[in-house]
Amino acid sequence: MAQSIKRHAAHIVQELEHAASLLTEDTGERLTEAILGAGRIFVAGAGRSGLMMKAFAMRLVHLGLQAHVVGETVTPGITKGDLLLIGSGSGETRTLIGMAEKAKALDADVAALTIQPQSTIGALADIVVQLPGVPKDQASGRDLTVQPMGSLFEQTLLVVLDAVILRIMESQHQNSGKMYGNHANLE
Q1: Which of 36, 68, 136, 181 would give a disulfide with 75, using CB separation of 3.0 to 4.6 Å?
Q2: What is the mean pLDDT of the chain?
Q3: Which family does it belong to (predicted)?
């Protein structure tokens, strides 16, 4: 008998709770400090991970920070004092490796959120936040998720980035009411 959508949703939430329990207490603290100390924040990711990074950039803008999505037509050049934040489960996405290398060559800082801290992007990064998840091909045979491909990583990425937003809100004494003033109003 097929499982109901409600049961699948409950199972996904259980997986996310388990993933959150695998995080260390200091997960994201260095990243939060780097974001607050950066001149500008640039975010990048590919596919669904890229969508999570775009959602994070939106919240950073709501906080009044200068955040940009790499690849958008209005994104300025990165320079020293800026931070490139990459979300990549594998840490081996070729286009993202090139971005990390270019940012390092321009003396910008690089932070990575990844399953694989020993990956190419992880090795290039100044800050690495290891997140639980399984590779898209799930060839490792681990039973961390019933979800397809990189879904657990992508969901955990969004949850951790939203937790970083809450830490920034705390440090800046922000609330949703203040942030709403920076929300898009030409919708």
Answers
A1: 68
A2: 90
A3: Belongs to the SIS family. PHI subfamily.
